[in-house]
Request: fold
Amino acid sequence: MKEPAEQDHYEVLDLTPGCSDVEVEAAYERARRQLGPDSLATYALVAPEESRLFLARLEEAYRVLADPEARRAYDLARRFPENARQPPSAPAALPASPVLEPRSAAGPPAGGPREEPTEPPRPVRKAESDLPADAPITGEVLRRIREARGLSLDDLAGRTRISRRYFEAIEQERFAALPVTVYLRGFLISLARELRLDPLRVSRGYLDRVARGSPQDQ
Amino acid sequence: MGVPETGLPQLFAQVRGYPAARPAASRARIVAVGGGKGGIGKSLVSASLAIELARLGRRVALVDADLGGANLHTCLGLPRARPGLGDFMERRISRLEEALVPSAVTGLSLVGGEDDPLAAANPRHQQKLRLLRAVRALDQDFVILDVGAGTGLNVLDFFLAADDGIVVLVPEPTSVENGYRFLKAAFYRRLRAAMEGPALAALLAEATRQAAGTLLGPRRLLSAARERDPALAEQLEREMRGFRPRLVVNMARTAGDAEIGDAVAAAWRAYFGLEMDYLGYIEFDDDAWRTVRARRPLLVEFPQGRTATAMAAIAGRLLAIERAAAVTAIGG
Reply:
């Protein structure tokens, strides 16, 4: 038994690794219907923040598993975790964490030779008008975008029901004040949604930064 | 309150032979019916399930353990009879069998509840223990316990002492909310009972503090335990696996309502990491209140009705679980 954040994408969707695309779609549809905020079955079960974290994991799992190319890479990383533990910045590395979105706005997919996807790739949904494709995800950048959007920290806290102090710590890159990765990822995804940024790019970029340890933290 | 926590492991141990499992076939299987909220049809579900099991040829005792809210005799169309459960608890009778009243359904008898809410609504620990032992010792195939509404300690203890704890929900937010509250309360009561000692207490306290006063989900509790005490974590995981309530959805009116049972089991699993067996749903049945008003058992009055059909499916799933448990007990 694992925390939702420790579960892999298959476990989150209650699937087995060999399952078909049709099963992925059906599992996602079912999970949205049964476990989403509008389901009577989740009424008063957990705190809204908990539910948001879980649903973010669900979306992430679906995005990877419904995309043949991403799923192939993910399966590879699952089978050979030792390869995946290389630094995330290395070109051929596959992140060990379930965050893996080769077609994120960060550029062409990293990784070695791979077959052409059998399906046309899904379009990237989130526009990023204020964030150049090569910009690093730093606390400072996130703060500037937030201010450009006219949002205060309190606005963010109110909209996401995540404590303001976490957003503050994210922007100021006080990593010691941040929760463990699994929750931080959820916070970053929520933050990115509010800022209309690509959640995966933001979470991956920022978590990389945390993993390396930035100068501000020394 | 009133009930010493220290007696709990002994209570469950003596009642269900825990942790050493006894062969399931040699004693009555106890099925408790609860669900937190009042007015959701717990009594009707209890009575209907009892009738259905009796029809299948099982010997069934229906016990009105809704202390202070007894009304099963009405659901069965029986007059209030003495002696009842209260008489046993107050030792006016020495054996619970003396309180068994046969019903119109072959194989089904009733132990009526207690009328006087003050006398029996808050049994002392020893009384509760004696009652649960007597229930376990009844020469029956099934004992159905209607534990009544609420999340009081007695309700929880009766629920937890059963082999099958059935939670009844109706597809309404209030019922779902109370149902989850009931399940969470039962789960933590079970944990405290099974895992006495400072280690769990410290873990729970620490976990609660971290979660800023909110109840920490079992998954997180387990993660926290793994970090500090692998042995405790192992025990915790065992208890989590052992807590496996059953679910019945009552008064379903739409196709969406029928789906709510699967959704609740899925949500319980996804968010809490705990399993739940969904037994089935009962459609809203106009005949239900009509027959209660006429004080006639619904399943006797309408043996082919919607509730009867639903109850047959629910009883079938319960029996399948029982068979699976028996196989596990023998095999393990």
Q: What stands out?
A: The interface with chain A takes residues 171-173, 176-177, 180-181, 214, 217, 219-220, 222-223, 237, 240, 259-260, 262-264, 266-268, 270-273 of chain B (CB under 8 Å). Chain B has a mean pLDDT of 83.
